[in-house]
Amino acid sequence: MAASRPLLKLFAASPWRKKILTGGAIIVGTGTAVGLYRSIDCLEDVRQVGIIRFGRAARTVSCIVADYKYSLYGVPYPSDEYVHVMKSCHLRCAARLLDLAAANGGVFVKVGQHVAALEYLIPKEYTKTLSVLMNKAPESTFEDVRGVVEEDLGMKLEEIFSEFAVIPVGAASLAQVHVARLRETGEKVAVKVQHRRVKKNARTDINTMQIMVNITDFMFPDFKLQWLVDEVKKNLPLELDFLHEASNAEKMRSLFGHLPFLKVPTMKLSHSSSRVLTMEFCEGEHINKIDYLKEKGIDTHDVCRKLGRLISEMIFQKGYLHSDPHPGNILVHKKDNGQVEIVILDHGLYLTIEDTFRRQYSQLWLALLNPNQDEIKRVANDMGVGELYGLFACIVTRRSWKSVTSGVSKRTMDDNEKKELRAYAVTLIPQISQVLQRMPREMLLILKTNDLLRAIEHQLG
Q1: Is the CB of residue 215 less than 8 Å from the CB of residue 60?
Q2: pLDDT tens by residue, 5-49
Q3: Exposed end of the chain (fewer CB within 10 Å): N or C?
């Protein structure tokens, strides 16, 4: 964040500041007003119309910019005081983003989860604060859940299910899951129901993010955030189609059915739609529930090996990667016969990896493991990173350049290296954002998956 002081001064001094912010508000406000009447079904919809949601986002961004600007004004750099003030700003602003995600929900929660997964790239005050969104997203009311189920399946909820839990067992950015029992068969199932307003708000939320990023890019050209909006634009429509998710789950089962420890719930397509997904209920506990694993006598190292094997086959062999393997989407279950299952949930987001990229990614890791600096540079250049190949290698491995050049498999990461990475994450944010903008789009989801996997392995010891 060394560059933040002159950038913030530039923003404060710009004669275009008021025009840009006002123009952005007018654009979004006009677009929202056109569909306002059609968008309001109840009082809660009034709180969630586009202009109000945009207003929340604009207010939050303005407060964040002002906080950094005035808190750092006159503070000597570099100094211990500057570091202390900066960390305090990070913490306050992360809390503001968390409040914004909780108020707006949907896309904002999804982006917050994505940021929380980028450890060593984003200051820890942000990743730690926003990590709560991984397991505790805002919940829809049961009235809304009933409405979505009955609208989409064309029957009263009680006609479909003999039991339907009012309290969800889990809530995520786009949907929540309820335990139920099918009336016609008596089978226990899990029912994933999309939040009623997510699809309605999605376009406005994406447009809001785009305007905010355009303004940020104009005022702070060293900070590249378009990659984040591009990912949301590309992936959100797919994640909002639960029939697409059901298709992903079936493909996952067919490609990896040879792994005896893998469990993918069976989808009940006759009781599903684009917003409602009914599936087999799977027993087990989330993979980060250490007390459960100890109680059942489950070997945590064996769980890590199995999960690592699955992810490796996805990337390097099949080219079909589950791109959201956070602990809330992975269960571990010890069956009566003593065998341990790994249950993979939430199949809304997969990455299909083309052979050309898989070859490049394999070559990159071979160069990193050898290590071969010339080969690292060559492959990184082929991937579009150019002169930032060293930083790119550090991002991919989550190791220091000293460890990369010595061989990441030959040096164990210690606390000093972790502190060094954190320090670089603070001072090289503009360069990191450029690497994320330049690299192939596939790398973004792979980095996210790798970070989530590392976090799980760290929790399991």
Answers
A1: no
A2: 443 443 344 444 444 444 444 444 444 444 433 444 444 443 445
A3: C
Q: Encode burial over 15-32: b for 16+ CB neighbours within 10 A, e otherwise.
A: eeeeebeeebeeebeeeb
Is the separation of the CB atoms in 166 and 173 below 8 Å?
no
Q: Contact 49/36 with Cβ under 8 angstroms?
A: yes
Per the CB < 8 A criterion, the answer to whether 332 and 342 are in contact is yes
Rounded to whole angstroms, the Cα distance separating 150 from 77 reads: 60
Q: Identify whether the C-beta of residue 429 lies closer than 8 Å to the C-beta of residue 222.
A: no
Beta bridge pairs of residue 352: 320
Which single residue is written with the structure tokens 């950038």? 7
Could you read off the pLDDT of 213-250 as tens digits, one per residue?
Answer: 887 777 667 667 788 888 888 889 999 999 999 999 99
Query: At which residue do the structure tokens 């360069």 appear?
Result: 431
Q: Which residue's structure tokens are 């406000």?
A: 29
- CA 442, 448, 450, 451: dihedral to nearest 10 degrees? 160
Q: In the structure encoding, which two tokens stand for residue 72, read together? A: 């750092």
CA triple 296-166-329, angle to 5 deg = 45
pTM: 0.79
Active site residue 291: no
